[in-house]
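input
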Amino acid sequence: MGYLPYYLFAMVAAYALRYPYLLAAGAGVFLLRRWLPDPYLFLKHARKVRGLKAQISQNADNVVARRDLAKVWLEKRRPRRALKLLEEARVRDPGSEELAFLYGKALLLSGNPEAALGPLVEAASKNERFQYGDAYLIAGRALYLLERNAEAEDAFARYVAINSSSVEGRVRLACARREQRDRDGARQATREALETFSHVPGFRQRAELVWYLRARLMTFGLA
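output
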């Protein structure tokens, strides 16, 4: 690639400066990105969504289609749409740890961390290693939002014990300890986050880059 990205950036910037409304539109999209549909995800899942909806309409007891459609809505950051599907699926399959996990995640993403804890604990009690311990990670996030930091620390610690390659888990663990004024524990978790990042393969580093940068900033007291 060489210096090509710099040339492209200079060309785009020069063009945009000639048309200030483009800059304003870009800034608006950036600020509203949380509420705007992702065009890539829309195109990626459009046919799948239609197919899953058709399956549900043809078979009222189709748990798999409800679960898969709920997962699509969660990926597209539409957790409220996922909730009804997961509630219906859980009535039909109450013993599923995956449905309990997804329901807890949807509740958290819908802004209800207190209600999320029940199904997440249920999922972890049935199979704590499901999705590499993600039930503990999501439960820790809910507890942290509720300012129950000692419990959040425990949840994050359980998560990283299962998923030892998670940089995010260690950064969140450091934050929970910092909230309890455990500076030594927070620094240790931050160091471990940086060390973990240096040892994981490239695809994991790309996925965890934001958490690595946050850990790096935390070492300087900037995050």
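quick obs: The chain has a mean pLDDT of 89.
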